[in-house]
């Protein structure tokens, strides 16, 4: 259903769709004072996701995380007014692959910003649970914003039955098994993205090795260790190691 032109909440006007995910569509919008924002409109049967995202996201305030401002109704569907994250999704931003060969400094900044965001999130007892390219918006210089908290929740949150969280290609082994998740599970997903930056393709038996050995290979191993108890579990430490191996200042 097209919503362009509709006014919701306290005078927020929907302008045009920006993109669609599995649970929602996001519209570019303009507030009553002319400020740009976005409105995330959920399919009606995903109302619980809207409630979860508002409950988690409204408590967060970090420059590398989208801010969840207020709930709204759009026609008969639940929605959220959020800050506008600039840029394009990660895979579109890095069209020349491998990213760490063709656009190294920008991709390193993207990973550093992503780890900044996760470090803040984890310090507040939350895990994102769906770190993937579509949820990372990247600007031309590599600056990044992590979005979408509708799958996020408390560290080690337990459900009545085993529940698989996230997107298959970026899931940690424990997420694929439906186990409770912690910071190390988000960091596994970062490791998959790092591997993509090194290889130009997602990991798998048919993916060729990088053109040359890279100092970041050690971080890739630490982040994608299958045994969660042996995996690097601190986003702050992962960021420090990223910059150290890349020869960049903290």
UniProtKB/TrEMBL annotation:
Annotated ranges, domain Protein kinase: 12-250
InterPro entries: Kinase-like_dom_sf, Prot_kinase_dom, Protein_kinase_ATP_BS, Ser/Thr_kinase_AS
Record Gene3D superfamilies: Transferase(Phosphotransferase) domain 1
Stretch forming the signal peptide: none
Recorded superkingdom: Bacteria
Keywords: ATP-binding, Kinase, Nucleotide-binding, Transferase
Binding residues annotated for ATP, in chain numbering: 40
Database matches in Pfam families: Pkinase
Record flagged with keyword Kinase: yes
Sequence intervals crossing the membrane: none
Official protein name in the record: Serine/threonine-protein kinase StkP
Naturally occurring in which organism (per UniProt): Deinococcus carri
